[in-house]
Design a protein that fits this description.
single chain, 432 residues, alpha/beta, Rossmann fold, 2 domains, 7-stranded parallel sheet, 21 helices
């Protein structure tokens, strides 16, 4: 079976190599971490025990903050290795954890690479954030008797349908998971249906509520506002936007600005993927409204004659929360189109009136909780987006109430970190 799987991986790698090369040249992706992706990971303190935490991308990296902090405090003689898959996830992990822990890329699930990584890291425990289960990884961990724990476990509606179709092929892989700490009872049941032992699955809640920073101000936001001339203006931020979505946002913005009451409104668009920055810049130029790319003025100040009505393109990494903290109203993207949505918790934690589209299947538990308490609002098209933003601008009490209810939802859902920590420490105390 291992040989068959490796052959399939090699075939897929050959088929995808032109696309990978194109993205490396055009979008500067996949250019780093190749030795680590091939399993060559050098520890900082090989004499210590090692705990390996894997978080695929930015969302999982952020969600790991509370549990990693607590574990590091409880286990000062343990070396923690944090791996990610994406470049953006690596950059985020490096900024959060690089000073304290080794941050690396996750090895490809080709058996020689995975075996090499395990031989070099010699982990006593592996924590996988949300779902990142791979067959060779699980088989190798099982061979080395390393417990694998899924933390903040989640299987989206789409993933569950896909996994069920191949359940006979993946059942053994899921059966090797030592413990699943799932976000909800529904997700817990899905892990069991896919092959995890029922007594090895526990619903503990979502870690994202514990890592959400409730407040109304972000360091650096004031200087950002000053550079872009946003002070004194109502600001609409559309964050984490996806393909075909910016056109709808620009249409809604044009509709709103036709009303003389909203001539001072400023729009900030922050696309999810850096490789789309240039494309979105061109879409904005086509509207005839002045464009300011934040990357061009980040180190200085925008001239006053360009401040009045320019649309801001947030084309930098790591500044989205600053933009959110300045917003009068926020639209969370990748949700007007069927892309699964973007994380809306950081917006809710800031107490901002939060709008998103109907396609949020990657964040259904959060969406359900916010909508139940009227801490967010769903819009389905440019017309509804226009109406929702307009209402938030005209009725500050309505907007503030939505934001306050969202913060209360977050507070009511906190506590998953302590529950997860208790279960992980039990495994470690048992002899890991």
């Amino acid at each position: 079976m291992k040989l068959v799987l490796d052959a399939l991986y090699l075939t897929a790698a050959l088929a995808l190599s032109p696309l990978i090369a194109y993205r490396a040249l055009k979008h500067h992706r996949y250019r780093q971490g190749w030795p680590q992706r091939c399993g060559r990971i050098v520890r900082r303190s090989p004499q210590k025990k090692c705990l390996w935490l894997h978080a695929v991308s930015v969302g999982e990296v952020n969600a790991a903050q509370s549990i990693l902090s607590e574990l590091a405090a409880k286990l000062p003689d343990t070396e923690f290795v944090v791996s990610t898959t994406t470049d953006t996830g690596f950059a985020r992990a490096q900024s959060l954890y690089g000073d304290q822990h080794l941050v690396t890329y996750f090895p490809f699930d080709f058996s020689p690479f995975v075996e090499r990584a395990f031989a070099q890291l010699r982990p006593c425990l592996c924590l996988l954030m949300e779902l990142e289960i791979w067959p060779n990884f699980m088989k190798t961990a099982h061979h080395h008797r390393v417990p694998v724990v899924v933390v903040n476990g989640r299987i989206s509606d789409r993933s569950f349908v896909s996994y069920r179709r191949v359940r006979p092929l993946i059942k053994s892989m899921f059966s090797r998971v030592h413990l699943v700490l799932a976000q909800t009872e529904e997700y817990a049941a899905r892990f069991v249906q896919l092959g995890c032992a029922a007594d090895k699955v526990i619903a503990t809640g979502s870690l994202k509520y514990d890592t959400a920073q409730i407040g109304d101000h972000i360091d650096g936001a004031d200087s950002l506002a000053a550079r872009l001339g946003l002070n004194g203006h109502p600001v609409w931020v559309a964050g984490g936007t996806g393909v075909d979505e910016e056109a709808l946002i620009l249409e809604a913005f044009e509709n709103i600005r036709r009303d003389s009451r909203f001539q001072a409104l400023r729009l900030v668009i922050v696309p999810r993927k850096p490789e789309r920055f240039d494309l979105v810049a061109e879409l904005i130029r086509q509207t005839g409204v002045p464009l300011v790319r934040y990357s061009r003025v980040k180190g200085g100040t925008l001239s006053r004659n360009r401040q009045a009505d320019a649309i801001v393109l947030g084309d930098t990494m790591g500044d989205l929360r600053k933009f959110y903290s300045l917003a009068t109203v926020v639209f969370v993207g990748r949700s007007l189109v069927p892309m699964g949505g973007s994380d809306m918790l950081e917006v809710a934690a800031l107490g901002k009136p939060t709008l998103f589209g109907p396609h949020t299947f990657n964040f259904r538990q959060t969406v359900d909780a916010l909508l139940k308490e009227e801490g967010a609002l769903v819009v389905t098209d440019a017309a509804q987006l226009t109406a929702a933003v307009t209402r938030c601008l005209l009725d500050p009490d309505y907007a503030a109430g939505m934001g306050q209810r969202a913060q209360e939802v977050i507070r009511s859902q906190q506590g998953a970190t302590a529950r997860c920590l208790h279960q992980i420490l039990k495994i470690l105390d048992a002899g890991c």
